[in-house]
Amino acid sequence: MYFPTTQWSLLARASLNGETTAREALEELCRRYWLPLHQFIRARGHKEAEAEDLTQEFVLHLLAHSTLKRADRMRGRFRSFLLGALMRFLGDEYDRRRAQKRGSGVAPAQFDENQDDVSDAPSQDSILFDREWALVILENALRIVEREFEERADANRFAMLRRFLPGSIDSPAYEDAAAVMGLSLPALKSELHRLRQRFKAAVRQEVACTVSAPHEIEEEIRYLQEVLMDKGSELRSKVERSPENP
Q: Looking at the chain, which terminus has fewer C-beta neighbours within 10 angstroms, N or C?
């Protein structure tokens, strides 16, 4: 059985000394995981601009301090590794800022110690990270399927069919969609069945890239489904969001 290791392979690439490889890996990490990382930091009480800076600093920190070299794909999910590394980074950042406050003669009490002390992160924050992670997985899977349609010059067909995927907020009536696409009702339903199966496979492919072994795939999919169920409105907005407008 083929088991992809895309994210863990990316970790290895990002740990190499080659400047070009590291830069490309950094860009890929930012693209794929910026939102979960950023949202977790925002949930810790940081303002938007500060959260953006901390997210960037964290990704740079992973590369600069060889944190990625300590990642072992056989020890767990990439999601868990990344969140753990982020929590440690925020804890170190809090200590650094507290030391700076003391050194400048400013009372450290001006800091909210619950803001960045992530030694025992609230579970709700972790759930937020996992939810954003799940949404990124869905977006990546959606882009995979969309590119396949584009390669067949079927972008317009996909634009209609995607409205029937789970989470859509404006799914038309089957009869209306069939009329617009020039299909019979049975033909439309057949198209939708194939799309849903392909989308499900793409989601599985994305999840497979972030776990340690094949037997963890279904468990991870079930967990990500559970965290999404609590935020149906967020799921709908992500599915409807255009890839050109992340």
A: N
Q: Is 208 within 8 Å of 73 (Cβ atoms)?
A: no
Q: What are phi and psi for residue 161, nearest 5 degrees? A: -65, -35
Counting every residue written for the chain, the total comes to 246
Q: Are 186 and 133 part of one and the same domain?
A: yes
Question: What's the whole-model pTM score?
Answer: 0.71
Q: pLDDT per residue over 3-56, tens digit each?
A: 444 566 666 666 555 556 656 766 776 777 888 999 889 888 888 999 999 998
Same-domain status, 87 and 168:
no
